[in-house]
Amino acid sequence: MIIVMKARSQEKELREVVDRIEKLGYKAHIIHGVERNVIGAVGDERGKAQLQSLEVLSGVEKVVPILKPYKLASREIRPEGTVVSINDKVKIGGDKIVVIAGPCSVESEEQITESAYAVKKAGADILRGGAFKPRTSPYSFQGLEKEGLILLANAGGKAGLPVVTEIMNPKDVDLVAQYSDIMQVGARNVQNFALLKKLGRCNRPILLKRGMMTTIEEFLMSAEYILSEGNLDVVLCERGIRTFETVTRNTLDLSCIPVLKERSHLPIIVDPSHATGYWSYVAPMSYAAIVAGADGLMIEVHPKPEEAESDGIQSLKPAKFAALMKDLRVYIEAAGRV
Ligand code: PEP
Ligand code: MN
Predict the structure, then answer these.
(1) Please, where in the chain does CATH 3.30.70.1140 lie?
(2) 275 in ligand 1 pocket by Cβ < 6 Å?
(3) In the chain, which residues fall in CATH 3.20.20.70?
């Protein structure tokens, strides 16, 4: 159920509603909106009638049931959409299209520093780089782990970019949070519920990637795991799903963008690198994603893709990335964004 407060309701009235919700055995999530606050009451569906009676309280405008299985992720909770603040400059979900760029893996100080300066110069907003890598083969490069986190944070600091990196194991949450501005949940961990719950209790924005076999509803239920623990700063990421097509690594599900926008208030970005698997398809799919309504992009960029430890084939060289960023402008304007 969501309890929509009146536009000019007082803090005291909000508290009273929260108290009543908790007394009825529900968990109350306060969501501050631009015009009004709403409270999500989550718990056993059987007490619905009692929650409905909160409508009589002063300060309450209406009580509406949420019919979808995801509650806090649903659009009704925040119709104007969520803007996730990464720092005082970078925000995902506002008018500005946000671009995350960098190598698949952090490999060396030189590689990540060169990448950071190059993507910053081309206009990227956030630096990416994996230190804990989820590889299909146990014999492939697994990432530099803590050393990689330190190199990434230093490179981001030098270039003046916040950083995002993947978290795979719940035991590493504190460590990864120490060195990153956003923590990424990779496609393979989208239903690692222990990890999602732990991330719901940390104070870092989360970039949640869709799994390769995850339906849109399952994807939003995974987001719900994080939100229901109290962390409302979740950014969704479409990175391609597995279909019968094998020419591309995955199939970019562009239609999930308007569907997610309709159903959820959470911002959504698109990763055309993992979606296609080849650098030459990254630019056209980036343009398409922005026109379809995405709030941003995540693109793999490597100074020497031919020497990359992972995902070299889909990584853009810095010059190609700079050209993409320039050509992207016309699509950003067409989408009415900045
Ligand atoms: C990545 O971002 O490098 C990555 C491993 O992505 P995904 O989880 O989408 O495969
Ligand atoms: Mn990768």
Answers:
(1) 2-64
(2) no
(3) 84-334
Distance of CA 295 to the CA centre of its chain: 10
Calculate how far, in angstroms, residue 139's C-alpha sits from the geometric centre of ligand 1: 18
Two tokens, residue 213:
């076999």
Which segments in the chain show pLDDT lower than 70? none
How far apart, in whole angstroms, are the C-alpha atoms of residue 60 and residue 7?
9
C-alpha to C-alpha distances, 173 to 103, 112, 144, 315, nearest whole angstrom:
22, 22, 16, 27
In this structure, the number of other CB atoms found within 10 A of the CB of residue 273 comes to 29
Which residues pair with residue 74 across a beta bridge? Answer: 264
* Whole-number Å distance between alpha carbons of 211 and 207: 13
Structure tokens at 56: 């009589």
> 275 and 249 in contact (C-beta within 8 Å)?
yes
Say how far apart CA 248 and CA 151 lie, in whole Å.
32
* pLDDT tens digit sequence for 85-133: 999 999 999 999 999 999 999 999 999 999 999 999 999 999 999 999 9
Sequence-separated (6 or more) residues with CB below 8 Å from residue 284:
none
Query: Which ligand has the nearest atom to the CA of 275?
Result: 1
> What is the topology classification, in CATH, of domain 84-334?
TIM Barrel (3.20.20)
Give me the pLDDT at residue 211, please. Answer: 98
CATH class of the structural domain 2-64: alpha beta
Query: What is the 106 CA–ligand 1 centroid distance (Å)?
Result: 13
Q: Element (H or E) spanning 95, and its range?
A: none
CA neighbours closer than 13 Å in the CB half-sphere of residue 317 = 6
